[in-house]
Amino acid sequence: MDTVELGKRIREERKRQFLKQGDLSGDEFSKGYISLIEKGKISPSLKALNFIAQKLNKPVVYFLDEDYVEKEELKKELAKYKNILEKFLTAQKAFDNKNYEEAIKLYIDILDNAIDEYSTNLINFYLAKSYFAIKDYTKVLEILDKISPYFEKSSLTEIIVEMHYMKGLCLGNLQKFQSSLENYLKALDGFEKYSLKHTQLKSRILYSIANLYSKMGEFIKARDYYMKCLEYSTQIKAVDFIALSNNGLGLVNHELKQYKDALKYIRRAILISKTLNLKEDIANEYNYLGFVYTDLKKYDIAEKYFVKSYSMYKDLGNERGMAYNLTEIGRIYYLKEDYPKALEYLNQSLEIVTKLGEEEEMGRIYTILGNLHLKQGQFELSEKELLKSVEILKTLGLKKDLSEAYKGLGNLYIALNNPEEAKKYFNQSIELLYEN
């Protein structure tokens, strides 16, 4: 470094620290000597430079190496990124070990430190995954909406597809089914458009679309997507999705009254799930067998499977699964005209699903309760429950279940000798069935 540049660096550092030339000279040197050094008129002795460096709290090399500042900044930057990487790996490990709250805390800590745009958005993506794991779906959607523009602009296709899929899951869990479906279809379109290699993701997307169509009462479309999922999962040897697709095909064939096919697919699913020891899937498959045997009016067999499913869900701590089976056991007793026993199970289920905010199941229970109280001649209570069911199911867009609620109101108004109202609700029930 030449004399002029050295003097300039000393002067800049002195001014940055709000010091005067006299503060540098002390009793050892004169202010005039410091002034000449800063103007680049003379070169300081090693003793003088060491003295000045101590006064400015800098190493001597700071004034001699032209790249010192850049090197120090680079070291700081590297140290920062090393710290971020260590925290990120710790957060990933916490997530893998299901310590989701710890992972969230670490990701937020990383975001609190200034990092580049790419890293900020990527950490937010992993943060969204952690919130999804603890079922904070509103928070997940908030984060994904914030980071979507960046990833779309950057054309990071696999993340874009996964974000649409995650949005679909969140919206589905929040019972916003149409918006959920739109995001699933965007995810599938993106997967195929960009020829992505993340094969399991495609199975998940196809299965989720099928499930949603089934939930919305569009069983032909549901069957098509279950078949697509089964074919694709067989091709890539995704055994768990082969089981899930068979189970789904069992459900939709049951809804389409193809009972022989329904039993065939569900039993295939159970065989695979038992081989893989997928307890939650087995519980779900027993539940579906119960549906089929209920429709076949083999109520004792149906109840046996619902009880087995309930017990498995109870062991797994899955209240939602428990409630769904209680509803179906209640429905069996309703069909057998054992109304006190039916009410016992239906009220147990209603208590659980109300606590969980499971509006879909609440709607179904109110329909059964309305029909039950109609049979008992409690018309006012029946009307209240059926209208409550319509209010819930209409909002959710669940056509098949809504059709059942309208049919119940039609029967109620026949009993009340109000044929015009009855006709209106029967027509609404039929229209929904034709839409499917």
TrEMBL record:
Location (main, coarse): cytoplasm
Nucleotide-binding listed as a keyword: no
Stored PROSITE patterns: HTH_CROC1 (PS50943), TPR (PS50005), TPR_REGION (PS50293)
Coiled coil: 64-117
Domain of life: Bacteria
InterPro entries registered for this protein in UniProt: Bac_ResReg_Asp_Phosphatase, Cro/C1-type_HTH, Lambda_DNA-bd_dom_sf, TPR-like_helical_dom_sf, TPR_rpt
TPR repeat ranges per the UniProt record: 203-236, 283-316, 323-356
HTH cro/C1-type domain: residues covered: 30-63
Gene Ontology CC: cytoplasm
Subcellular location: Cytoplasm
Record-level Gene Ontology MF annotations: DNA binding
Key words, A-Z: Coiled coil, Cytoplasm, Repeat, TPR repeat
Family to which the UniProt record says this protein belongs: Belongs to the Rap family.
Protein name per UniProt: Tetratricopeptide TPR_2 repeat-containing protein
Organism whose genome encodes this protein: Thermoanaerobacter wiegelii Rt8.B1
